[in-house]
Amino acid sequence: MRMYDLIIKKRNGQELSREEIDFIVNGYVKGEIPDYQVSALLMAIYFRGMTKEETSNLTMAFVNSGDKVDLSEIKGIKVDKHSTGGVGDKISLIAIPLVASVGIPVAKMSGRGLGHTGGTLDKLESIDGFKIELSKREFINNVNTYKMAIIGQTSNLTPADKKIYALRDVTATVDSIPLIASSIMSKKIASGSDAIVLDVKVGSGAFMKSLDEAKELAKTMVNIGKSLNKKVIAVITNMDQPLGHEVGNANEVKEAIKVLKGQGAEDETNVALTIASYMTVLGGAFKDFDKAYETLKEKIKTGEAINKLKEFIKIQGGNPEIVDNPDKLPSAKYHIEIKAENSGYIEKIDAESIGISAMLLGAGRQTKEDKIDFGAGITIIKKIGDKVKKGDTICILHTNMKYTDNAVEKAKNAFKISNNKPERPPYVYEVIM
Ligand code: URA
User: In terms of pTM, does the model score above 0.85?
Assistant: First the structure.
């Protein structure tokens, strides 16, 4: 086989076989195929797309390039969730204790922030003492005993995806649906869960900006799951504005606590209950979604859900007192209020700009070595559809930095106020299974 011929084949819109995809992926990981040839192939894939078969084969080639986590010692159907990334997306912090509260095991591997979006591990690390590095034994024991555990990805999980993702990043080939779908699904499949709920975000703060693109990504990922005998449900949810009111690490933990105490914002609570309910349905706790939703809502009312979060923090070494006393979480020194420049209704909030502003305030890393400021972030006071008067506070920036002009500018420009009351965006668009 010659890489040159395979580039021509894809460039001409023909289908690559499993053997050919394995040849490319293995050759690239071993350093036998150079970056420039894989770059050309990625661009051919970007324009020509991939068939269902090719996408599944690419996913499995990524999975087989590294470690596969063996969770067979965990009893029951292990359910995972994945979000394609958003701003203020703290759903995992809420869903893990909710799902565990009905006895369904969640063995979760999570990531850090990517671009303008936050990461679950960074959020959890804002809790004093919280450990995201557990031994394999601790991880399995925690899931068997308490039904929940979270760790960072092992370094040798899907190394082929890691190498190809870095190349996509510099060759303008990130936003290709088969490449995104195989990248995400390979990591989920290598992490060993039996069932996966995908939260596919669409809107100004998501990687998918249109509903059509989000649907196609969701269908592609569900098809990959089916072809590999995994139960997968994709929920397409709105990301036209930050979810809930808080963006940042400690801020988002505080808001997750509120949701689990029954005091959360409606959008956040609704999306979290939806994702968690599908997880429990896939895990076999309920036959239908409505029953799952009602039961989980009840777990919030009775206090079982918040107690489960307390237990989760405690078993991973964190200080559980933050649940009763969230003021013990890190906070920032300076608070800058952004005011409405005219009266009307909030028509748009560019969630990506809010995410970038939060990063500039110190809530994210610009480079791998950067330290996160856990107290930095943004509180969104007014959301889409809310009425505002000139001079009302629309959001508050939290930071320890003295120079914040860029962040202030970004946050201010993220809001658009108009005279007409806009429709509030739906929380959930569609469920694909
Ligand atoms: N997230 C991933 O893990 N991979 C992609 O390709 C895009 C988003």
Answer: yes
